[in-house]
Design goal:
Blueprint lengths: L4 E4 L3 H12 L7 E3 L4 H11 L2 E2 L2 H7 L2 E4 L6 H8 L8 E4 L6 H5 L8 E5 L9 E7 L5 H11 L3 E5 L5 H9 L1 H18 L4 H21 L4 H8 L5 H11 L2 H21 L2
Parallel strand pairs: 1-2, 1-4, 2-3, 4-5, 5-6, 7-8
Antiparallel strand pairs: 6-7
Helix pairs in contact: 7-12, 8-9
Length: 268
Amino acid sequence: MAQKVAVLGTGKIGEALLSGMIRGGWSPARLLVTARRPERAAELRERHGVEAVSNAEAAESADILILTVKPQDMGALLAELAPHLPADRLVISGAAGVPTAFFEERLAPGTPVVRVMTNTPALVDEAMSVISAGSHATEEHLAHAEEIFNGVGKTLRVPESQQDAATALSGSGPAYFYFLVEAMTDAGILLGLPRDKAHDLIVQAAIGAAVMLRDSGEHPVRLRENVTSPAGTTINAIRELENHGVRAALIAALEAARDRSRELASGT
């Protein structure tokens, strides 16, 4: 933790990482931030006690740079950083669909790049962050990335060839669950429940199911079967889900998300 880390383009996810690092023992004196708007930079400085700098200053003084700007803004950011960034600095990218080769082509030869796909539960320290090494990143570089992202949840290493699939499942994953909760809440209202009560029932059911999936070690089929009595209410609901092709729709949705991640990587 003696190294200096800069978070560039510090939006919600960038700030979640920043606060997670501070809770994990990083000194604010070792953390830098950049932000497009001066008022945002001042807000971060006031809230977290960190130094706000320009992108060029971050490139010159930080040992690790975490780039959290949108994918479409990454090219311009790298063009700004390249003249100031030595090849021995670790670059961590959180941009969906942007391969490590994109960075390696635009930065000094040999620059280590680690690609990370995290998700919005980082805001409540329950993220799943998927980590892949670029061609110059070593075990030590991957360990640095894990140290940072473990502060806001869990991490998993995968080959970069699996990043588009991980983006579809995990990066976009929370949205699918919000969509499901929204639909189930509407169903609860249709069945006669007030919206707030329907919401509370579904959210707690989701939390309980997630904890059982995580902690029981049981296969999801077994857990579902434990709820599904012969000729009962649950099996009738499951039959309707199958009749309406919900399983096939979910598979098609994740394939579409994966394909869009690939399109982003190709610049289309």
